[in-house]
Write a structure and sequence with these properties.
This protein has 147 residues and is of the alpha+beta class. The chain contains five helices and seven strands. The longest helix has 12 residues.
Length: 147
């Protein structure tokens, strides 16, 4: 029998991408340390040989996967705050987005975005991407998962 995580997991990150994006320039202009960078044409998945069609620069929430969606958003916004004007300027020419990934094993987590969070996201000119995976145990019914 293999052990697997049956607790909810939440991951959140900010990314900016573009064919002409230079990740090092984003780092220089923002003075932020990215969690991940890649260049157009680099291998994306070694197993498939897929390559990146665009260059990218991103920062991941520093919180653990058990934290709330709101906590992850606040952490990301705190990290990005000092460079928000530069990031908003870059978002005019490149695609900027915030991604939240939710692996729901136990319950559907609350996803409330208060005015301050929404205003900060709008000021960054980001698109929002929420990936939600409901991973109900085979022995649990859908009704039980929603309780």
């Amino acid at each position: 029998m293999t052990s697997r995580n049956t607790h909810n997991r939440i991951i959140a990150y900010y990314t900016i991408t573009g064919a002409e994006l230079v990740p090092g320039e984003v780092t220089r202009r923002t003075r932020l340390t990215p969690s991940r960078v890649w260049n157009r044409g680099e291998i994306r998945h070694a197993a498939t040989g897929k390559i990146h069609e665009n260059s990218g620069w991103g920062i991941t929430s520093r919180l653990g996967e058990a934290e709330s969606v709101t906590s992850h958003l606040v952490d990301l916004l705190t990290q990005l705050d000092a460079a928000s004007e530069v990031l908003a300027e870059l978002a005019v020419n490149f695609k900027a987005y915030l991604t939240i990934v939710i692996y729901a094993h136990e319950f559907v987590p609350e996803m409330t975005f208060d005015r301050d969070v929404l205003a900060k996201l709008a000021a960054l000119r980001v698109e929002a991407n929420i990936d939600f995976y409901c991973l109900v145990d085979d022995e649990m019914s859908i009704d039980q998962a929603g309780e």
